[in-house]
């Protein structure tokens, strides 16, 4: 996961996605060890642990999102109400997370990222991803790479 210099790293917000090959390795291991329930039980427990970690990360990200949304709404309300410094709510929340750009380079990088994100979102909205009813849904599982028992 790429981070800009100067930004705080919060392990709760870092998401690692399992690759297709990791899923294939797990499937192959389960198939090979079908007659050894102990190994399958260890794999199942490991996967459940990963799901719990993913659930906690999601809850943390939802809390961060709610705080940021609340700060953004309070900022807009403060501006409309004529408060002298309406950005206080938003800048305080960003400062808590170490997300305030400090240098001119950081400011330019944030603005460039915002323009790129807006362009990508506009492109996605114009041509949404097609899904076919016959193809299975692809699911992504958050978790760390694992070594399967031999």
List the helices and strands and how they pair.
Blueprint: H1 20-32, H2 37-80, H3 88-96, H4 104-126
Question: Short summary of the structure?
Answer:
This protein is an all-alpha fold and 150 residues long. The protein has one domain (17-126). It has helices at residues 20-32, 37-80, 88-96, 104-126.
Tags for this entry?
single chain; 150 residues; elongated
Can you offer a commentary on this structure?
The structure is a single chain. This protein is mainly α and about 150 residues long. About 60% of the residues lie in helices and about 0% in strands. It has four helices and no strands. The chain has helices at about 20-30, 35-80, 90-95, 105-125. α2 (about 35-80) runs antiparallel to α3. It starts with 19 loop residues before the first helix and ends in a 24-residue tail after the last helix. The model is unreliable at about 1-5 (pLDDT under 50).
Helix content: 55-70%
Please state the structural category: mainly alpha
Largest sheet: none
- Global mean pLDDT: 79
**Helical stretch count?**
4
Q: In angstroms, what is the radius of gyration?
A: 22 Å
Overall geometry: elongated
How far apart lie the N and C ends? 30 Å
Beta-strand segment tally? 0
State which percent range the strand residues make up: under 5%
Q: What ranges have pLDDT less than 50 throughout 5 or more consecutive residues?
A: 1-7
Number of domains: 1
* N-to-C SSE string, H for helix and E for strand: HHHH
